[in-house]
């Protein structure tokens, strides 16, 4: 025993540095004096706690305790590259330095606070989700609460991020001892500020745009959120109405009314919309659920989470994986900000919606763009069928060439549908619906992603040395000016590599073997949005079809004093859905279906018109007669719908006749 004790004494005397190291290791877990143990973390693997770096941090801590305002920017050089532990420690020091500078009346206190925000945000975005990330967002929110920003944008974002963590309470968690007496009175309101999460990301609102709770109902200041999910918002001050358009939906609210209109259909509201301080407030659930969004209140009434309601398509959500996986297989121009892991290519926001619209030529109407994308998807499907048919007829060595064209057609259609979603031209369910034929054809034509990638890169590999494309150029006349010259093979390979890295889970060969569940046409799938036509005689307003493309004009022909004729080119596969939707729209305008005359034989209709109709067209023929009282006494308005209506040898349409009877 004596020998053991003597050995221990010799060890301590001759190796004091090792004893010092143990003391330093014990100090590592201690937070600075202004930080509680609960708000501090030692990030594993950080070099901040080693040697000269830790000594420098200790010195900076001590200076902050003594009341100095310490600059932390140069201290980032203490270690090479990103280090979460160093950034977290510097954020704490910068936070206390801001408090010290404020106490000393120094104008630099705000710059110290900005340093702290930058350090904590670096940790929050650089660390994997966990305690370090949570604490970084907590201190980031504290910085935002002390800053001079009246709307507290940093605070709102920090709070929104923290809302994902369970049992978080703003008042008890955000205001720490160091902040006592420092938060301005008007900033205390931010502690109860509601937060909107759009797809998990905070939608930061100015203070005059915060949601309000009226009679236990959340009322939203509509424009910011509506535009972020791809809507157009139109305000009519005279009529006191706000009209919201997205894809095929037209939703109209009247201030003070407990009823909204969706394409002419009445929707009851539990709380009437209103205007306050030049802001229009609408009932949150009525607006969002009508736009196919899912609404969830997180952590009580202060955090509203808004996401796409994917449940509307049932078990068919797997189609989304296919659409994401196919999109990179296209030859479209380079999209540097495109995210292959997210449907639509990026986080939903007003800015991103505009980016997608610019990409699709925003100078055209919503109806035109929708019809264009629908036609592109259907034409891509037809092209792929033709390529597959030709592949069987041609020589074997041409097989890869045809398959490359199939893949590019499918990839282009899936990319375009996603851009339409990002722009607000398509709903989520419409993306899946209009791409599912392509997906089903694709998964039965290939067996593995390796085969797909080989075929896609085939044509580019033929020009591996000198084949190139121009990215970002501008066409001036017939000449492409500017841009970046890229090797075609390298460009395609890099694009695929980025996509696979973003979503390795969907590029699995088992996806080709899994059950494929189709979806029905979206319930609110209006191929053509409705407009209102004022009748020539009575002045009544009647819903009409709108031309689906820029080349087809709406034809109005006076047949006599009591009748007009309107003709529209439509896609044959969408006729039943469109006519059914139009009948519902007419019923919402007070028309009733006249059963006795609603089933005239198609052949009789064509005989009256003098047209020769093929057998398949006759099988799809429909006729409906709707009528309602006119505002002219003794008259009735009648709308007769005949479909399909042959316009020429290659196209079909819808004939709508509006007339009056005594």
UniProtKB/TrEMBL annotation:
This is Copper amine oxidase N-terminal domain-containing protein. It comes from Candidatus Intestinimonas pullistercoris. InterPro entries: Cu_amine_oxidase-like_N, Mao_N_sf. Residues 199-305 form the Copper amine oxidase-like N-terminal domain. The lineage of its organism: Bacteria, Bacillati, Bacillota, Clostridia, Eubacteriales. Pfam families: Cu_amine_oxidN1. SUPFAM superfamilies: Copper amine oxidase, domain N.
